[in-house]
Structure formats: C-alpha cells, structure tokens
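Table 4 source record.
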Amino acid sequence: MRAKYAGLLILMMIGGSLFSCAAQRVYNNPADLYRAGNEALSRGKFDEASQYFQRLVEEFPESPFRVEGLINLADALYQDDRFEEAKFQYQKFLQLYPVHPFASKAQFQIGMTAYRRIKTFDRDQSFTREAISAFEKVIQNFPFSPYAEDARKKIRAARQLLARHEMAIADFYYKKGAWVSAIPRYQKILSQYEDAPFLDEVLFKLGQSYFAEENFLKATQSFAQLIQRFPQSPFAREAKARLQELQ
C-alpha cells in the first residue's frame, strides 16, 4: 500500500514538473506573457499575474505590451494587498509615461495604496495624510479625469478621519482638565476642518475650556458663535445657560 502511494506521489511530482516546464516554454514571448497575466488577473490569481507581468516588463522593455503590462503589474500587486510594491510600480509608471491615458489612474491608485492602509481615528494618521496628498495631485494634475470626483470624495472622507483624530486628542486633554493643551486642538479643528460634522461640540468644549481658564471674553465668544451657527444643536441650550452665567 505504501509503495502504491509512493508511486502516485512520484507521478504527481513528475506531472507538476512537466506542467511547469510546459508553461515556461509557452510563455516565452511578450504577447503570451501579457495574455497569461490578464487571464490570471481575471481569475483572481494576483501573485501569478504579477509574476507574468514582471517578466514582461523586465525581459521585453521594447514590447508594445510593456506599457499596459506595467500598469497591470501594479494592479495585480494592489489586488494582492502588496501596497508598498504596488505604489512603487504606479510611481514608476507615472515617471515613464506622465501623459499616458493611464497616468491619472496611476496617480489615483497611489492614493489608494495609502487609503487602504488607513487606521482608525485613534491611531497614527500617516497613511491618511499620504492618501490626501496623492488624491490632491489627481485633482491638480488631472482635473478632467474620471478619477477626479472619486479623489474628492476620498479626500473628504480622509479629512473627516483627521478631524476625529484631532477631536480625540483634544477630548483627552479636556477630560484631564488640561485646558491649555485642549484649546489649541479645538481651535485647529475649527480652522482646518470646517466641514466636520461635530463643530457644535467643538465650540461648546472650547467655550468650556476658556471658561475654566477664566478667559470669560473668549468663552462668551465661543458660546455665542455656537448659538448663532448651530441654534438647533443640543449644545446650544447649554451654551445659552453659560452665557447667562457670564452676563
């Protein structure tokens, strides 16, 4: 019985070896590599696809398939969650073909390699800032690209995350009663993230921080601004009560 299984294993190994050799013989020109890469990509075999496209790009630099092979290589790496490698290939594409129709896609995808790695608002936001920077280049360099609108949406979402990150830090100091540290954080949100959905809360906590610091003039200004800008906010009622105390 053992001899039977051993023989079967040997046959499988030989068959696999023959298949591998056959594949190497078949895919020895740029057209075949390009086709094989696309077939692997369509089947979700991203690592396999990246290997085909890598060979195409490196072994046949003068091939007419090289341009699409390079962008497809980057796409395969991106789909395989190999974001840093994908970013490198997208950047390489932009350097080599800055006016190619795929250039806007490459720039957008550079942003996506960072966007896909963004962490929650309470963690480091380096990838968030990197994504925003890359998406801004899409809008600046390719304003009429089909990727421009999506880049704007991604920027808005990323900026909301940065605003929440700043809010979390400000609230940390606020809860500790570290008003001197909380105040500039709340001010930063007001000046840099005007579209944040929690500006009413920011204004209220800023006013409270000034009140605790006995800077009653700025506390009054913060509460008054809250009431004027967000009269329906649940924080507006508390702000009115504070203003009455300050009169």
